[in-house]
Predict the 3D structure of the following.
Amino acid sequence: MSLKRTVQQLFETNSNYLDAQQALNQAYSLKALSDDLYTDPLRFVYELIQNSDDAYDGYSTKTPIVHIAIIDKNYLVVANYGKSFSERDVRGICCVGCGTKKLDREKTGYKGLGFKAVFGKSDYVLIASKGIFFRFEANSKAFKWNEKWAKDQTSWETLNQQKFVYPWQICPLWTESGQIPKSIREWLFAQSEVVATIIRLKNISETQEAIEMLAKQPHVFMFLRHIKDVRFSTSTLVETSLNISVLKDGSIKISHDNNKVKSHWLLYSCRLNVPETVLGDIRLPEKLNQDKVVEMTLAAKIDANDKIEPVRGSDSVLFAYLPTKISTYNLPILVNSSFLVNASREHIHVDSLWNQWLFSCIPNETFKWIQELTKNAKWSEKAYYLLPNKIPAKDKLAERYNQSCNDSVKVIPFLLSIDKNSLSINEAVVDITMFSSDNCIGHELIRDFILHRSSPKLKLARNPFVTNSHRLRNLGITQFTWDGCMEMLQSRYFSSKFTCESDIKFIQYLYTQRNSTQIQKRLYDIPFIKDQSGSADWLMLDSTDAYVHQEVMVWLETQPPIKQWLRKF
Protein backbone atom coordinates (compact mmCIF):
# COMPACT_ATOMS: atom_id res chain seq x y z
CA MET A 1 0.00 0.00 0.00
CA SER A 2 1.30 3.47 -0.84
CA LEU A 3 1.97 5.93 1.96
CA LYS A 4 -0.75 8.20 0.57
CA ARG A 5 -3.31 5.42 0.71
CA THR A 6 -2.20 4.53 4.25
CA VAL A 7 -2.70 8.12 5.41
CA GLN A 8 -6.13 8.33 3.76
CA GLN A 9 -7.21 4.99 5.23
CA LEU A 10 -6.11 6.01 8.73
CA PHE A 11 -8.06 9.26 8.44
CA GLU A 12 -11.19 7.36 7.42
CA THR A 13 -10.80 4.78 10.18
CA ASN A 14 -9.91 7.16 13.00
CA SER A 15 -12.61 9.72 12.20
CA ASN A 16 -15.45 7.24 11.75
CA TYR A 17 -17.58 6.89 14.90
CA LEU A 18 -21.10 5.56 15.41
CA ASP A 19 -21.83 8.28 17.91
CA ALA A 20 -20.55 11.84 18.35
CA GLN A 21 -19.95 11.25 22.06
CA GLN A 22 -17.52 8.44 21.22
CA ALA A 23 -15.48 10.79 19.05
CA LEU A 24 -15.57 13.48 21.74
CA ASN A 25 -14.47 11.06 24.47
CA GLN A 26 -11.50 10.02 22.33
CA ALA A 27 -10.64 13.65 21.61
CA TYR A 28 -10.74 14.61 25.30
CA SER A 29 -8.63 11.58 26.24
CA LEU A 30 -6.00 12.50 23.67
CA LYS A 31 -5.94 16.12 24.83
CA ALA A 32 -5.51 15.06 28.46
CA LEU A 33 -2.71 12.68 27.45
CA SER A 34 -0.89 15.33 25.41
CA ASP A 35 -1.22 17.94 28.15
CA ASP A 36 0.07 15.54 30.82
CA LEU A 37 2.93 14.01 28.87
CA TYR A 38 5.32 16.93 28.89
CA THR A 39 4.82 19.90 31.16
CA ASP A 40 7.85 21.99 30.20
CA PRO A 41 8.78 23.38 26.77
CA LEU A 42 11.70 21.02 26.28
CA ARG A 43 9.93 17.71 26.85
CA PHE A 44 8.31 17.39 23.43
CA VAL A 45 11.54 18.59 21.81
CA TYR A 46 13.34 15.74 23.58
CA GLU A 47 10.79 13.33 22.14
CA LEU A 48 11.41 14.57 18.60
CA ILE A 49 15.18 14.41 19.09
CA GLN A 50 14.82 10.80 20.20
CA ASN A 51 12.71 10.03 17.13
CA SER A 52 15.43 11.56 14.96
CA ASP A 53 18.04 9.43 16.69
CA ASP A 54 16.00 6.28 16.10
CA ALA A 55 15.66 7.22 12.41
CA TYR A 56 19.38 6.50 11.98
CA ASP A 57 19.11 2.96 13.34
CA GLY A 58 20.36 0.67 10.58
CA TYR A 59 20.75 3.65 8.25
CA SER A 60 24.22 4.15 6.81
CA THR A 61 25.44 7.74 6.93
CA LYS A 62 28.76 9.37 7.71
CA THR A 63 27.50 11.82 10.34
CA PRO A 64 24.00 11.43 11.85
CA ILE A 65 22.57 14.94 12.24
CA VAL A 66 19.59 16.47 14.01
CA HIS A 67 18.61 19.99 12.96
CA ILE A 68 16.52 22.13 15.33
CA ALA A 69 15.20 25.33 13.78
CA ILE A 70 12.65 28.06 14.36
CA ILE A 71 11.21 29.40 11.12
CA ASP A 72 9.18 32.51 10.47
CA LYS A 73 8.95 33.14 14.24
CA ASN A 74 6.11 30.66 14.27
CA TYR A 75 7.26 27.12 13.50
CA LEU A 76 9.59 24.70 15.24
CA VAL A 77 11.36 22.20 12.98
CA VAL A 78 13.17 19.09 14.23
CA ALA A 79 14.76 17.37 11.25
CA ASN A 80 17.04 14.45 10.47
CA TYR A 81 18.44 12.85 7.34
CA GLY A 82 17.84 9.22 8.26
CA LYS A 83 15.19 6.71 7.25
CA SER A 84 11.99 8.00 5.69
CA PHE A 85 8.58 7.23 7.20
CA SER A 86 7.25 3.77 6.44
CA GLU A 87 3.62 2.66 6.45
CA ARG A 88 4.28 1.09 9.86
CA ASP A 89 5.71 4.36 11.19
CA VAL A 90 2.62 6.30 10.10
CA ARG A 91 0.33 3.76 11.76
CA GLY A 92 2.50 3.92 14.88
CA ILE A 93 2.11 7.66 15.44
CA CYS A 94 -1.64 7.45 14.76
CA CYS A 95 -2.36 4.98 17.54
CA VAL A 96 -2.11 5.23 21.33
CA GLY A 97 0.20 2.91 23.25
CA CYS A 98 1.07 0.73 20.26
CA GLY A 99 3.97 2.56 18.62
CA THR A 100 6.55 0.89 16.40
CA LYS A 101 9.31 0.98 19.03
CA LYS A 102 7.68 -1.19 21.66
CA LEU A 103 9.42 -4.36 20.50
CA ASP A 104 12.44 -2.84 18.74
CA ARG A 105 15.46 -3.36 21.00
CA GLU A 106 17.61 -0.92 19.03
CA LYS A 107 15.24 1.98 19.59
CA THR A 108 14.83 3.95 22.77
CA GLY A 109 11.07 4.37 23.23
CA TYR A 110 8.78 1.65 24.46
CA LYS A 111 5.51 3.20 25.66
CA GLY A 112 4.02 4.09 22.27
CA LEU A 113 2.92 7.47 23.63
CA GLY A 114 5.79 9.85 22.94
CA PHE A 115 4.73 11.58 19.73
CA LYS A 116 1.43 12.65 21.34
CA ALA A 117 3.45 15.15 23.37
CA VAL A 118 3.64 17.56 20.42
CA PHE A 119 -0.13 18.05 20.47
CA GLY A 120 0.08 19.66 23.90
CA LYS A 121 1.95 22.55 22.30
CA SER A 122 0.32 22.83 18.89
CA ASP A 123 -2.85 22.39 16.85
CA TYR A 124 -0.91 22.00 13.58
CA VAL A 125 1.84 19.40 13.06
CA LEU A 126 3.33 18.63 9.65
CA ILE A 127 5.40 15.54 8.86
CA ALA A 128 7.84 15.77 5.94
CA SER A 129 9.45 12.56 4.74
CA LYS A 130 11.79 13.07 1.79
CA GLY A 131 9.24 14.81 -0.41
CA ILE A 132 6.12 13.19 1.05
CA PHE A 133 3.92 15.19 3.45
CA PHE A 134 1.02 14.65 5.83
CA ARG A 135 -0.26 16.67 8.75
CA PHE A 136 -2.41 16.72 11.84
CA GLU A 137 -4.60 19.83 12.03
CA ALA A 138 -7.25 20.52 14.65
CA ASN A 139 -9.30 22.96 12.59
CA SER A 140 -9.06 21.28 9.21
CA LYS A 141 -12.08 21.51 6.94
CA ALA A 142 -11.55 17.83 6.17
CA PHE A 143 -13.48 16.96 9.34
CA LYS A 144 -17.16 16.69 8.36
CA TRP A 145 -20.14 16.40 10.66
CA ASN A 146 -21.88 13.03 10.38
CA GLU A 147 -25.61 13.58 10.02
CA LYS A 148 -26.24 10.17 11.58
CA TRP A 149 -25.18 11.71 14.91
CA ALA A 150 -27.58 14.64 14.76
CA LYS A 151 -28.96 17.14 12.28
CA ASP A 152 -25.92 19.37 12.67
CA GLN A 153 -23.10 20.11 15.09
CA THR A 154 -24.73 23.18 16.60
CA SER A 155 -27.92 21.38 17.57
CA TRP A 156 -25.92 18.48 19.05
CA GLU A 157 -23.80 20.88 21.13
CA THR A 158 -26.93 22.68 22.35
CA LEU A 159 -28.63 19.45 23.31
CA ASN A 160 -25.59 17.96 25.03
CA GLN A 161 -24.19 21.23 26.40
CA GLN A 162 -20.72 20.29 25.14
CA LYS A 163 -18.47 21.68 22.44
CA PHE A 164 -17.71 18.97 19.89
CA VAL A 165 -14.07 18.26 18.98
CA TYR A 166 -12.70 15.63 16.63
CA PRO A 167 -9.82 13.38 17.81
CA TRP A 168 -7.64 15.11 15.23
CA GLN A 169 -4.40 13.93 16.88
CA ILE A 170 -4.81 10.47 15.33
CA CYS A 171 -6.33 11.55 12.02
CA PRO A 172 -3.55 12.21 9.48
CA LEU A 173 -4.25 14.41 6.47
CA TRP A 174 -2.44 13.84 3.18
CA THR A 175 -0.78 17.10 2.22
CA GLU A 176 0.42 18.40 -1.13
CA SER A 177 3.43 20.70 -1.26
CA GLY A 178 1.23 23.63 -2.29
CA GLN A 179 -0.71 23.32 0.98
CA ILE A 180 2.43 23.84 3.07
CA PRO A 181 3.14 27.37 4.36
CA LYS A 182 5.60 29.10 2.04
CA SER A 183 8.37 29.66 4.62
CA ILE A 184 8.29 25.98 5.58
CA ARG A 185 8.17 24.82 1.98
CA GLU A 186 11.25 26.89 1.12
CA TRP A 187 13.17 25.55 4.11
CA LEU A 188 12.27 21.93 3.32
CA PHE A 189 13.09 22.17 -0.37
CA ALA A 190 16.50 23.65 0.49
CA GLN A 191 17.33 20.48 2.45
CA SER A 192 18.45 17.26 0.83
CA GLU A 193 16.51 14.11 1.74
CA VAL A 194 15.09 15.65 4.91
CA VAL A 195 12.74 13.92 7.36
CA ALA A 196 11.17 16.50 9.65
CA THR A 197 8.44 17.29 12.14
CA ILE A 198 7.18 20.86 11.84
CA ILE A 199 5.09 22.27 14.68
CA ARG A 200 3.16 25.52 14.65
CA LEU A 201 3.71 26.71 18.20
CA LYS A 202 1.29 28.39 20.55
CA ASN A 203 4.10 30.02 22.53
CA ILE A 204 7.14 30.49 20.31
CA SER A 205 9.13 32.65 22.77
CA GLU A 206 8.89 30.04 25.52
CA THR A 207 10.11 27.30 23.18
CA GLN A 208 12.85 29.49 21.72
CA GLU A 209 14.21 30.20 25.21
CA ALA A 210 14.12 26.49 26.01
CA ILE A 211 16.06 25.60 22.84
CA GLU A 212 18.66 28.27 23.53
CA MET A 213 19.04 26.79 27.01
CA LEU A 214 19.35 23.34 25.43
CA ALA A 215 22.23 24.56 23.28
CA LYS A 216 24.04 25.57 26.47
CA GLN A 217 23.65 22.08 27.97
CA PRO A 218 25.23 19.94 25.25
CA HIS A 219 25.74 16.92 27.49
CA VAL A 220 22.02 16.11 27.16
CA PHE A 221 22.82 14.76 23.67
CA MET A 222 25.71 12.62 24.84
CA PHE A 223 23.79 9.37 25.36
CA LEU A 224 21.93 9.34 22.05
CA ARG A 225 22.65 6.11 20.20
CA HIS A 226 23.48 7.63 16.82
CA ILE A 227 23.39 11.43 16.51
CA LYS A 228 26.82 13.11 16.66
CA ASP A 229 25.98 16.49 15.13
CA VAL A 230 23.31 18.86 16.51
CA ARG A 231 22.51 22.02 14.56
CA PHE A 232 20.52 25.01 15.82
CA SER A 233 18.86 27.82 13.87
CA THR A 234 16.71 29.97 16.14
CA SER A 235 16.40 33.75 16.20
CA THR A 236 18.89 34.54 13.41
CA LEU A 237 19.93 33.20 10.05
CA VAL A 238 23.18 32.02 11.61
CA GLU A 239 23.37 28.29 12.21
CA THR A 240 25.33 26.98 15.18
CA SER A 241 26.28 23.38 15.76
CA LEU A 242 27.45 21.01 18.44
CA ASN A 243 29.70 18.13 17.48
CA ILE A 244 30.12 15.02 19.61
CA SER A 245 33.43 13.27 18.99
CA VAL A 246 35.51 10.52 20.59
CA LEU A 247 39.12 11.41 21.42
CA LYS A 248 42.10 9.05 21.33
CA ASP A 249 41.96 8.53 25.09
CA GLY A 250 38.35 7.36 24.83
CA SER A 251 36.83 10.53 26.28
CA ILE A 252 33.99 12.43 24.64
CA LYS A 253 34.41 16.02 23.48
CA ILE A 254 31.41 18.20 22.70
CA SER A 255 32.48 21.26 20.74
CA HIS A 256 30.97 24.26 18.95
CA ASP A 257 31.25 24.72 15.21
CA ASN A 258 34.39 26.81 15.85
CA ASN A 259 35.91 23.71 17.46
CA LYS A 260 35.86 25.35 20.89
CA VAL A 261 35.31 22.65 23.52
CA LYS A 262 31.94 23.12 25.20
CA SER A 263 32.27 20.16 27.55
CA HIS A 264 34.48 17.12 28.00
CA TRP A 265 33.41 13.76 29.41
CA LEU A 266 34.91 10.42 30.28
CA LEU A 267 32.54 7.52 29.53
CA TYR A 268 32.27 3.93 30.68
CA SER A 269 29.80 1.55 29.04
CA CYS A 270 28.84 -1.92 30.20
CA ARG A 271 26.32 -4.65 29.49
CA LEU A 272 24.48 -5.97 32.53
CA ASN A 273 23.07 -9.47 32.79
CA VAL A 274 19.44 -9.18 33.83
CA PRO A 275 18.55 -11.38 36.84
CA GLU A 276 15.34 -13.42 36.69
CA THR A 277 14.13 -11.77 39.89
CA VAL A 278 13.50 -8.41 38.20
CA LEU A 279 11.72 -9.76 35.13
CA GLY A 280 8.56 -10.04 37.22
CA ASP A 281 8.25 -6.25 37.44
CA ILE A 282 4.70 -5.55 36.27
CA ARG A 283 5.78 -2.31 34.59
CA LEU A 284 8.50 -3.96 32.52
CA PRO A 285 7.78 -3.44 28.79
CA GLU A 286 7.77 -6.48 26.56
CA LYS A 287 10.98 -5.63 24.71
CA LEU A 288 12.94 -5.32 27.98
CA ASN A 289 11.34 -8.49 29.28
CA GLN A 290 12.76 -10.34 26.30
CA ASP A 291 16.29 -9.07 26.89
CA LYS A 292 18.79 -10.87 29.05
CA VAL A 293 21.24 -7.97 28.82
CA VAL A 294 20.77 -4.22 29.32
CA GLU A 295 23.22 -1.39 28.68
CA MET A 296 24.41 1.19 31.20
CA THR A 297 26.71 4.15 30.61
CA LEU A 298 28.45 6.25 33.25
CA ALA A 299 29.90 9.68 32.46
CA ALA A 300 32.33 11.82 34.46
CA LYS A 301 32.83 15.49 33.69
CA ILE A 302 36.39 16.59 32.85
CA ASP A 303 37.44 20.18 33.48
CA ALA A 304 39.86 22.33 31.46
CA ASN A 305 42.82 20.90 33.42
CA ASP A 306 41.85 17.29 32.68
CA LYS A 307 40.65 16.76 36.24
CA ILE A 308 37.47 14.92 37.14
CA GLU A 309 34.81 17.39 38.26
CA PRO A 310 31.64 16.28 40.11
CA VAL A 311 28.34 16.97 38.39
CA ARG A 312 26.23 19.10 40.71
CA GLY A 313 22.74 20.44 41.25
CA SER A 314 20.26 20.40 38.39
CA ASP A 315 22.89 18.94 36.04
CA SER A 316 23.04 15.78 38.17
CA VAL A 317 20.08 14.03 36.59
CA LEU A 318 19.45 10.46 35.56
CA PHE A 319 19.22 9.71 31.85
CA ALA A 320 16.99 7.30 30.00
CA TYR A 321 18.91 8.21 26.81
CA LEU A 322 17.53 11.72 27.24
CA PRO A 323 17.42 13.51 30.60
CA THR A 324 14.76 12.96 33.24
CA LYS A 325 14.14 15.53 35.96
CA ILE A 326 15.53 13.27 38.68
CA SER A 327 18.30 15.05 40.58
CA THR A 328 17.24 13.82 44.04
CA TYR A 329 20.20 11.50 44.40
CA ASN A 330 22.83 14.12 43.52
CA LEU A 331 25.19 11.59 41.97
CA PRO A 332 28.61 13.05 41.05
CA ILE A 333 28.45 11.33 37.65
CA LEU A 334 25.78 11.01 34.98
CA VAL A 335 24.08 7.63 34.63
CA ASN A 336 22.25 6.48 31.51
CA SER A 337 20.28 3.25 31.22
CA SER A 338 16.87 1.79 30.38
CA PHE A 339 15.20 3.09 33.52
CA LEU A 340 11.46 2.58 33.74
CA VAL A 341 10.03 6.10 33.53
CA ASN A 342 6.56 7.56 33.87
CA ALA A 343 4.56 8.61 30.82
CA SER A 344 6.22 12.03 30.64
CA ARG A 345 9.69 10.45 30.97
CA GLU A 346 10.43 13.06 33.62
CA HIS A 347 10.51 10.69 36.60
CA ILE A 348 11.41 7.06 37.28
CA HIS A 349 9.40 4.55 39.30
CA VAL A 350 10.92 4.25 42.79
CA ASP A 351 9.02 1.06 43.64
CA SER A 352 10.08 -0.73 40.44
CA LEU A 353 12.16 -3.88 40.98
CA TRP A 354 13.84 -3.18 37.64
CA ASN A 355 14.91 0.34 38.64
CA GLN A 356 16.05 -0.85 42.07
CA TRP A 357 18.26 -3.45 40.40
CA LEU A 358 19.69 -0.85 37.99
CA PHE A 359 20.46 1.41 40.95
CA SER A 360 22.31 -1.42 42.67
CA CYS A 361 24.46 -1.77 39.54
CA ILE A 362 25.64 1.86 39.58
CA PRO A 363 28.19 1.59 42.45
CA ASN A 364 29.28 -1.86 41.32
CA GLU A 365 30.05 -0.65 37.79
CA THR A 366 31.64 2.54 39.13
CA PHE A 367 34.17 0.48 41.10
CA LYS A 368 34.89 -1.60 37.97
CA TRP A 369 35.37 1.61 36.01
CA ILE A 370 37.82 2.91 38.62
CA GLN A 371 39.73 -0.38 38.31
CA GLU A 372 40.06 0.22 34.55
CA LEU A 373 41.13 3.83 34.95
CA THR A 374 43.84 3.08 37.51
CA LYS A 375 45.63 1.15 34.75
CA ASN A 376 45.45 4.09 32.35
CA ALA A 377 48.47 6.38 32.70
CA LYS A 378 46.44 9.52 32.02
CA TRP A 379 43.65 8.82 34.49
CA SER A 380 45.35 6.64 37.09
CA GLU A 381 45.91 9.35 39.70
CA LYS A 382 42.44 10.84 39.12
CA ALA A 383 40.40 7.64 39.19
CA TYR A 384 39.65 7.75 42.92
CA TYR A 385 37.69 10.98 42.43
CA LEU A 386 34.96 8.70 41.08
CA LEU A 387 34.60 6.73 44.31
CA PRO A 388 30.86 6.58 45.06
CA ASN A 389 29.49 7.98 48.30
CA LYS A 390 26.32 6.82 49.98
CA ILE A 391 23.31 8.94 49.11
CA PRO A 392 21.12 10.43 51.86
CA ALA A 393 17.77 10.01 50.10
CA LYS A 394 15.35 7.71 51.94
CA ASP A 395 13.72 5.44 49.39
CA LYS A 396 14.13 1.97 47.88
CA LEU A 397 16.45 3.17 45.12
CA ALA A 398 18.79 4.83 47.63
CA GLU A 399 18.71 1.73 49.84
CA ARG A 400 19.80 -0.53 46.99
CA TYR A 401 22.47 1.95 45.89
CA ASN A 402 23.92 2.27 49.39
CA GLN A 403 23.88 -1.48 49.99
CA SER A 404 25.74 -1.95 46.72
CA CYS A 405 28.33 0.60 47.86
CA ASN A 406 28.93 -1.49 50.97
CA ASP A 407 29.15 -4.77 49.06
CA SER A 408 31.08 -3.67 45.98
CA VAL A 409 33.89 -1.92 47.84
CA LYS A 410 34.76 -5.22 49.53
CA VAL A 411 34.86 -7.50 46.51
CA ILE A 412 35.99 -5.49 43.47
CA PRO A 413 39.78 -5.08 43.14
CA PHE A 414 39.57 -1.40 42.20
CA LEU A 415 42.83 -0.33 43.86
CA LEU A 416 46.17 -0.22 42.06
CA SER A 417 49.12 -1.14 44.24
CA ILE A 418 52.51 0.54 44.04
CA ASP A 419 53.74 -2.44 42.00
CA LYS A 420 50.77 -2.11 39.57
CA ASN A 421 48.58 -4.99 40.76
CA SER A 422 44.81 -4.68 41.27
CA LEU A 423 43.79 -5.14 44.91
CA SER A 424 40.56 -5.22 46.86
CA ILE A 425 40.28 -2.87 49.80
CA ASN A 426 40.78 -5.75 52.27
CA GLU A 427 44.14 -6.56 50.66
CA ALA A 428 45.46 -3.01 50.66
CA VAL A 429 47.14 -0.48 52.96
CA VAL A 430 47.49 3.29 52.74
CA ASP A 431 50.86 4.45 54.08
CA ILE A 432 50.52 7.91 55.60
CA THR A 433 54.26 8.07 56.37
CA MET A 434 55.51 7.04 52.90
CA PHE A 435 58.15 4.87 54.66
CA SER A 436 57.03 1.80 52.69
CA SER A 437 58.70 3.13 49.52
CA ASP A 438 61.61 1.07 48.18
CA ASN A 439 64.12 3.83 48.94
CA CYS A 440 63.11 3.86 52.61
CA ILE A 441 62.16 0.99 54.94
CA GLY A 442 60.33 -0.80 52.12
CA HIS A 443 57.03 -2.62 51.97
CA GLU A 444 58.02 -6.03 53.35
CA LEU A 445 59.01 -4.98 56.88
CA ILE A 446 56.01 -2.71 57.31
CA ARG A 447 53.59 -5.27 55.86
CA ASP A 448 54.96 -7.96 58.18
CA PHE A 449 54.60 -5.69 61.20
CA ILE A 450 50.99 -4.81 60.30
CA LEU A 451 50.17 -8.51 59.97
CA HIS A 452 52.02 -9.27 63.23
CA ARG A 453 49.91 -6.89 65.29
CA SER A 454 46.56 -7.33 63.48
CA SER A 455 43.69 -9.14 65.13
CA PRO A 456 41.81 -10.72 63.52
CA LYS A 457 44.51 -11.44 60.99
CA LEU A 458 44.40 -9.40 57.82
CA LYS A 459 44.81 -10.94 54.37
CA LEU A 460 47.14 -8.43 52.80
CA ALA A 461 48.65 -8.67 49.32
CA ARG A 462 52.36 -9.36 48.94
CA ASN A 463 52.85 -5.64 48.36
CA PRO A 464 49.65 -4.10 49.77
CA PHE A 465 50.53 -0.42 49.53
CA VAL A 466 48.46 1.94 47.38
CA THR A 467 48.61 5.67 46.72
CA ASN A 468 47.46 7.70 49.69
CA SER A 469 44.04 9.32 49.23
CA HIS A 470 41.60 10.73 51.77
CA ARG A 471 38.82 9.15 49.70
CA LEU A 472 40.29 5.71 50.36
CA ARG A 473 40.74 6.42 54.05
CA ASN A 474 37.05 7.31 54.26
CA LEU A 475 36.22 3.84 52.89
CA GLY A 476 37.88 2.14 55.87
CA ILE A 477 41.09 0.92 54.24
CA THR A 478 43.87 -0.26 56.58
CA GLN A 479 46.17 2.68 57.34
CA PHE A 480 49.80 2.76 58.41
CA THR A 481 49.76 5.95 60.49
CA TRP A 482 52.47 7.92 62.26
CA ASP A 483 51.37 6.44 65.58
CA GLY A 484 51.60 2.95 64.10
CA CYS A 485 55.00 3.84 62.67
CA MET A 486 56.34 4.90 66.10
CA GLU A 487 54.98 1.72 67.61
CA MET A 488 56.73 -0.32 64.91
CA LEU A 489 60.11 1.43 65.21
CA GLN A 490 60.14 0.89 68.97
CA SER A 491 59.04 -2.74 68.84
CA ARG A 492 61.31 -5.72 69.42
CA TYR A 493 59.64 -7.45 66.48
CA PHE A 494 60.82 -4.71 64.13
CA SER A 495 64.31 -4.41 65.68
CA SER A 496 64.91 -8.11 65.16
CA LYS A 497 64.33 -7.73 61.41
CA PHE A 498 65.78 -4.25 60.84
CA THR A 499 69.28 -4.71 59.39
CA CYS A 500 72.11 -2.20 59.22
CA GLU A 501 71.64 -2.09 55.46
CA SER A 502 67.99 -1.15 56.02
CA ASP A 503 68.99 1.46 58.59
CA ILE A 504 71.44 3.10 56.18
CA LYS A 505 68.71 3.33 53.55
CA PHE A 506 66.35 4.79 56.18
CA ILE A 507 68.87 7.47 57.21
CA GLN A 508 69.44 8.39 53.55
CA TYR A 509 65.71 8.74 53.04
CA LEU A 510 65.28 10.99 56.08
CA TYR A 511 68.16 13.15 54.88
CA THR A 512 66.65 13.60 51.41
CA GLN A 513 63.28 14.42 53.00
CA ARG A 514 64.75 16.66 55.71
CA ASN A 515 62.81 19.71 54.54
CA SER A 516 59.48 17.91 54.64
CA THR A 517 57.14 19.40 57.23
CA GLN A 518 56.05 15.95 58.40
CA ILE A 519 59.65 14.76 58.85
CA GLN A 520 60.79 17.95 60.59
CA LYS A 521 57.86 17.71 62.98
CA ARG A 522 58.73 14.15 64.04
CA LEU A 523 62.46 13.76 63.51
CA TYR A 524 63.40 13.97 67.21
CA ASP A 525 60.85 11.26 67.99
CA ILE A 526 61.86 8.81 65.26
CA PRO A 527 64.37 6.18 66.45
CA PHE A 528 66.38 5.70 63.29
CA ILE A 529 70.08 5.07 64.14
CA LYS A 530 71.00 1.53 64.99
CA ASP A 531 73.12 1.12 68.16
CA GLN A 532 75.72 -1.48 69.10
CA SER A 533 73.06 -3.85 70.38
CA GLY A 534 71.17 -3.68 67.11
CA SER A 535 68.31 -1.53 68.40
CA ALA A 536 67.22 1.61 66.57
CA ASP A 537 67.43 4.77 68.65
CA TRP A 538 67.88 8.53 68.42
CA LEU A 539 71.61 9.09 69.20
CA MET A 540 73.60 12.29 69.48
CA LEU A 541 76.74 11.61 67.49
CA ASP A 542 79.02 13.90 69.50
CA SER A 543 78.48 12.07 72.79
CA THR A 544 77.57 8.57 71.72
CA ASP A 545 79.63 7.78 68.66
CA ALA A 546 80.95 4.74 70.46
CA TYR A 547 77.44 3.34 70.76
CA VAL A 548 76.39 3.71 67.13
CA HIS A 549 76.45 0.39 65.35
CA GLN A 550 79.88 -0.02 63.83
CA GLU A 551 78.60 -0.74 60.33
CA VAL A 552 76.42 2.38 60.40
CA MET A 553 79.28 4.45 61.80
CA VAL A 554 81.66 3.30 59.07
CA TRP A 555 79.11 4.31 56.46
CA LEU A 556 78.56 7.73 58.08
CA GLU A 557 82.27 8.47 57.85
CA THR A 558 81.89 8.25 54.06
CA GLN A 559 78.89 10.62 54.09
CA PRO A 560 80.08 13.99 55.49
CA PRO A 561 76.92 15.93 54.51
CA ILE A 562 74.65 13.44 56.29
CA LYS A 563 76.91 13.28 59.35
CA GLN A 564 77.07 17.08 59.48
CA TRP A 565 73.27 17.23 59.22
CA LEU A 566 72.94 14.86 62.16
CA ARG A 567 75.34 16.92 64.26
CA LYS A 568 73.08 19.99 63.89
CA PHE A 569 70.43 18.48 66.09
